[in-house]
Amino acid sequence: KFFTNAGGASKQDIKALVTRASEVANEYGMDESTCFDADTPLPETSASAAVDSVPLVKEYYAKHCQEVVRNAAMNRYEALTGSAKVPAILSSSKPLENLRIVVDAGNGCGGFLASEVLAPLGADVNGSAYLDPDGNFPNHIPNPEDETAMASAVAITKAASAHMGICLDTDCDRSAVVARSGAALNRNRLIAAMSALVLSAHPGTAVMTDSVTSNGLRDFIESLGGRHVRYKRGYKNVIDKGVELGSGACQLMMETSGHGALAENFYLDDGLFMALLLVGEVAARAAANPDAANSADFDPLGELVANLREPVESVEYRLGIQVEPGSDFRPVGEAALESFKEVCADMASSGWVLEDENYEGYRVRIPEGDDGEEGWALLRMSLHDPLCVLNVESDKVGGHETTLQILKSALLEKQVALDLSALSS
Q: What are the beta bridge partners of residue 365?
């Protein structure tokens, strides 16, 4: 990945870079026969003297991460207390002293967070797991969306009685955290936690997400004075749309996968940065109420998302588009989407309402009771595969089954070219 202070390079940018590099190589008489194996030292050239090897992570990046935590903690302390007088511990060299924070790096490259960032700031990181890089991933896949990975992060957090846990993916561009209670904060919960921080610092800003976030997240963001914009799947799509709106309108862009970017961090796809801000949140709340911080009930991240209403049921189905092998599946998939839209319109008499603002496929709001319960269904085409993906959420036990029965019956009647066998009968 390539970044400047204006954001990440696009596919077009990368193509231009590679094309120009090839042109330069040709200008110097290089071709495929002069490529070097990764283990072969490069020949000495006049440029070699300008190349300097530095301990990038330990000497530079880790110290940068430490400063991110310090600044986040001090800024959040002032926001929480209204006092610009920062307590001594937050301005000291050990702002995380007396806090237990564990890291599950899944044998990816993020293990340095425990030893080079958190521990030097005073945190007790005993109980952290799988910090050594190992591309065979012998313990679990480093993926905040993976149930095994999150179960591992939850387990080490509980075992250490830690104030928080951190789960990272292989290259740290995705993250999730674990609250003191053992609750996993990924997907909607992580977006809610980050929204709370960002909206405190930037009232009224838009929060850009992918298309499959919950109704409860929308309500949570709006309750804090923000504007929720659901865009498309694909973290680059989400980030680019936020960049398009500009930092004055959109400070936070996140996908439910754990990818996320902030305007203040140059729009980098940087899960580690988000985790650092949440570490700062824990430190700020501990400093604001030091007596409570020693209690087992002290759960700062849990408090942050306490008002997030979560669905009772949430399911996803991947429905194959039925076309001849090798043929273009998109027209068939688009026809299926239009049939889905027609089904939703036909259900208007039962209160189904198609969302006005929708950027991929169609999403419908489904009333589920007299007490304000509301589910939703979204049908969209996969970004890359000959599939349509159906997401359904419900506020009631059994609610998603009711929705599936209606959709399956109506789509079969319309003879859509989708494999509906995965849906309940």
A: 353, 376
